[in-house]
Write a structure and sequence with these properties.
This protein is mostly helical. Helices cover 58% and strands 7% of the residues.
Length: 340
């Protein structure tokens, strides 16, 4: 084992010498915030480059002696025997697309926080709005807020910052809309309740739908599958794993709330999972989000538009019914009651 220098030139010359001997060079490194930059710099100087997922190989670090050399040797052995958990590394354009989606989400969150701060600030000054007044964030309402506290620097700065954030959101949204026209987002947007933001997030993080052999693995990639705790005859399904892109789960859940109001088939599925229990609303809406994701994978694979009749069928072609968090516990309870 040999440590490569930080300089790309030296590292490249070292790898070139290894390949110059007629040997095939296989390299791997752990995924990180700069994984894309590292991948672009190494992919052309090796025969095979693999990005590993450290969260799935934590057992290699459970040792009394841990060094970079020991960790590198363990990863090399796993790579050689084909047991290294890998991470899909998309191209630079797709990584930039994902970054823009994440950037817009952060801007929207900051704008929401700023609006709450403005309303809290006005409430602290004893200012209330009448019930018949227009929305808080119309141009007339903003002029009203500016006239309420003339010379108040805090209020002026909050409103100015909000205007700047809204301009930034508008600019990045225009860029995302232009990118969306070049993709197959229209296909996913035929699903009731699915808009451009949800469609672009699913497409950007899917990258290539053919790398997912089953709908379950596709849903697991977005963190919408339940955690499994199985030992002997006991099998419990817990909360969803929440792995993968959080922005995708957030948008899918938001679309699920709209879908249950616009699509009768999804509404029926939602009510069946909820089972008339108010406390199961969140469980049911997560189940609908996973159902939407399974439908999206099928549509991207076959190229067909959304067909509500297929969702209504109990044995529809979109895949098995969605398992939700908590179902494992209820199934175990039913088994115990039957035994009694």
């Amino acid at each position: 084992m040999r440590r490569c220098q930080r300089s790309w030139a030296r590292c490249g010359r070292f790898l070139a010498r290894q390949r110059g001997h007629g040997d095939r060079v296989h390299a791997t490194f752990e995924v990180s915030g700069q994984a894309g930059w590292l991948y672009d710099g190494l992919v052309d100087v090796v025969d095979r480059l693999v990005v590993s997922n450290p969260s799935q190989i934590t057992w290699i670090y459970r040792t009394a002696k841990k060094t970079d050399r020991i960790d590198a040797r363990k990863q090399a052995v796993l790579l050689q025997i084909g047991e290294l958990p890998t991470v899909h590394m998309p191209g630079r354009a797709v990584r930039q697309w994902r970054g823009q989606i994440q950037h817009r989400r952060k801007l929207v969150e900051r704008a929401c926080q700023l609006k709450n701060r403005i309303r809290a600030y006005l409430k602290g000054q004893g200012i209330r709005r009448s019930a018949d007044a227009p929305g808080w964030w119309t141009q007339a309402s903003r002029r009203w807020m500016e006239a309420l506290l003339p010379g108040d620097v805090a209020m002026e700065d909050l409103l100015e910052e909000l205007s700047l954030l809204e301009k930034q959101i508008k600019r990045v949204t225009a860029l995302l809309d232009a990118r969306l026209e070049k993709t197959g987002a229209w296909l996913l947007m035929t699903i009731p309740g699915v808009g451009p933001r949800t469609a672009e997030a699913v497409l950007a993080y899917t990258d290539d739908v053919s790398r997912f052999r089953r709908g379950k693995s596709f849903c697991a990639y977005f963190g919408l599958t339940p955690r499994l705790d199985e030992s002997g005859k006991v099998r419990r399904l817990g909360h969803i794993s929440k792995q993968g892109p959080s922005v995708g789960r957030w948008l899918l859940v938001e679309s699920a709330w709209r879908a249950v109001n616009k699509c009768e088939a999804l509404r029926t599925f939602y009510e069946r999972v909820q089972h008339g229990q108010t406390q199961r609303k969140k469980i049911a809406i997560v189940a609908v989000a996973r159902k939407l994701l399974s439908i999206m994978r099928a549509m991207l694979t076959t190229g067909e538009v959304f067909n509500e009749a297929l969702v209504l069928r109990s044995d529809d072609r979109w895949g098995p019914e969605t398992s939700t968090e908590g179902q494992g516990r209820s199934r175990t309870a039913r088994r115990r009651r039957r035994r009694r």
